[in-house]
Design brief:
With about 190 residues, this protein is an alpha/beta fold. It has seven helices and five strands, in the order H-E-H-E-H-H-E-H-E-H-E-H. Strands 2-1-3-4-5 form a five-stranded parallel sheet, sandwiched between helices. Helix 5 links the parallel strand 3 and strand 4. It is globular.
Amino acid sequence: MEQVVSEALINSMLAKEAFVKESRGRLIDLACQMVVTLRQEGKILIFGNGGSAADAQHMAAEFVNRFLLNRKPLAAIALTTDTSVITSIGNDFSFDEIFSKQMQALGKKEDLALGISTSGSSTNVVKAIEVAKHIGMRTAVLTGGLSGSTSELGKLADICLNVPTKKTAHIQEVHLWIEHVLCELVEEEIFGEN
């Protein structure tokens, strides 16, 4: 067990280091796009499946409530929270449409769509990004895997933040770290004193 703990820690740190080495500039670009979106009174629409759905809710809460600073709320919505909407779309149409139909209903040109997909190929996330692009929204995705940035989502979105590792747990750990860094950068840029 001691070895498992040590290896998990080392591999998690290596995944973060590999991500930063590969995508530091794109991470900052996404934070800047979020700032522009929020300053133009747009909102951030966040979505994903499973653990990524939980991440979407977590990140939306950080924007709407607070992250590190006590400040006014920022407009963010997790498209993963309304079970009536999700189950009615899944039942009447397809699970593949649960985010794209919400994007059609809620998305505006001044908004930013942020899809989260560990695999980089979740069909419902792909469809939502396609709709967002059709609307004219800014689009970004968090992906994972050795071919994440060349995955369907990686090629489709304006900004792709890919975690270059195969292990799902480490991809998800880095996604949460990315989400926290984005919240901190946005909050500091809009409300900070530095």
